Amino acid sequence: MNNIENDTTRKFAEGMWKLIMARGVVLFFVGLILLLFPTATLTTLIFIMGVYWLIEGIATMYNTIQRRNLYNYWWWGFVTGGLGILAGVIVLAKPFSTTVLTTSFLIIFLGVIALLNGISGIVTAIRLNKLQQGGRSGMWRGIFSLILGILLISSPFSSALVFIKIIGSFSLFAGLITIALALRVKKRAKEFEEQNTF
Length: 198
Description:
- The protein is mainly alpha-helical.
- It has one domain (3-39, 95-197).
- It contains six helices and no strands.
- It has helices at 3-36, 38-66, 74-93, 95-130, 136-154, 156-197.
- Helix 2 packs across helix 4 (95-130) and helix 2 (38-66) packs across helix 6.
- The two termini are 15 Å apart.
């Protein structure tokens, strides 16, 4: 490798390690926040949704009033805008209570889907076994999905907190790996610099 190629590689490595390090640090701290404050994280997310619903509702209502003479069904925009404003106000007024209710609803919904997938998977596996087509793996997938669905439905809010902690753990781990990679790239950049000095 000649000096020009060495210099180009060094400059690239010098620029890259800082970017990689920044990503690693962000991932690490996001993971830490998710693990230490799972309930607060959920509340913050629902709060942001509340702000969005409020702004969207006001914008829809304003837009509908401005253009009510152009459409026959202008009242529909009025209704949806009003619902958006109402949802936003409720979330912003009682963020924690809304977090529990909204999160529970979403997790129950996911639980029902998992339950239906599990039942469907088990039925399909039984039919495949009758045809001697080997439905054993499908049976296990169905059972796992069924158990998951039952767990999600039985304790939705706790399941959501567990899910956030899992994401937090992955984020923390990914952050540490990314920071380690950044340090390796930095070391390599220094090696190239020392090669060019001599």
